[in-house]
Fold 4Fe-4S binding protein.
Amino acid sequence: MKYIKPIGLTLFLASLVFFTSLLFLGQFRLTDAVLQEAVSEEHYPILKEELAPMIGETYDYNFTFASDFNAYFGAYNDRLRIEGQYEKVIWDDYAFSVTKAASIGFVADNKLLLLLLTIVAGSLGVLLYVLPTPQHKTGGLKQEGVYHSSLKSRGWVGIVVGTYLIAFYVLLYWFAEYITNWVLLADPVSIALSGNQASKWFMYGLIYTLAILVMGVRMFRKYRGNKYQTLRTASVMFFQLAFAFLIPEILVLFNKPWNDFKHIWPLDYTFFFEYRVENMLSSGAIGMFMLIWGILLVIIGVPLMSYFYGKRWYCSWVCGCGGLAETAGDPFRHLSTKSLKAWKIERWMVHGVLVFAVVMTAMTIANYFAEFTLLGDATGVVHQWYGFLISAAFAGVIGVGFYPFMGNRVWCRYGCPLAAYIGIVQRFKSRFRITTNGGQCISCGNCSTYCEMGIDVRWYAQRGQNVVRASCVGCGICASVCPRGVLKLENGPEQGRITDIPILTGNDSITIHQTVRS
């Protein structure tokens, strides 16, 4: 058994190095046929003329091909902008589609083999590494050595991992043409599921799902014997695999709109966008069901489920963002700051994003029914800024890339508009709370250390007060790591949950809500 972890780590690192090196392998050749396949019929004659120097040339590197394409394509659009001919500017981003279509050589000819040698082998390596993981033990803050690990305590390994994740997300969102070889690897799986070649989002979804499944096994191993953690982990694994990955692709196979039935507005901020609504309305009964289902979830499902079960029903049992945070992000949960300043920033930021999403959606719906005579292109500009700032930079680059720096729930804590919506319900109209037994608390601090949402759970436990916070996602780790069984997740009567008392913290005077034990 002692050799399994080193073998697994070696296999994972070798697969990761090979996976990264694929960006520098393969060849690319642009022909008339390739160009005609990758762009619209309207733009083909224009691009054929503008890209003439590239046609027939063989490129040995993804970077040089994509760079040349962007240079010629950008020069054409820049020339039109300077001349004021904005109506002739090509706004479509063809860089990725053309680069992928032009791929030839080693990578394009060995997709399945390379998929097995990189993503699949890497997943196997992680499994071999995590299987010998001992059952979670409690008793001291440094019991698991988290503060002595370079990966888990912002050491050089953590910095390298975080930097790699950030670079991955930057390329994925804004420079996908440079990771074409990675997307090619996902073609065999995509074709098997939907009959279509893989997009960058399918490749990302494949890796994302595998990360949750593989690291979910780690959670099973770490918390074996803990029924709540086992069921919760199984739940996020199931919802990610079935609802976020397989079902949407099967819908596409039957020429229906891609839809993740568990993705709820305002987290699914494009739900009320014109193209989404039109796709659903034009898809018959299944499309109408998608539209009605999404609306009912927002106005009935979320409030009702949150009233009975609090935030945990979605954030810790269903959500894909939460699923990744609770599995792949689990080693970094202790890095979330517990300071009062962070709590104040959190409240303003997460509710600010919610307001942004609500205003944007209201503008979108109003403009849609006014047939775009009310606000014109203003909604499009707002959509672009929200997509760039919130959906890409915040949820992706920062939300996952900052795991090794700020913990595993940066997005959920500071930016998720759905978490803000559910949190409001949980805080003021819910039966969920974490009960405490102050007489048994030994102030070890495990609960606060491992709270991914930055809640100082020990403060409540020492006073025997129930934890009733809008930010709590009900992951239950605080109860799992408590050596004395002080904490317990419960759904009880609303009466007697909280009452306001003033708390002095340094020079600040704030009001919090104290729990009154029934």
Observations:
- The chain has 24 helices and seven strands.
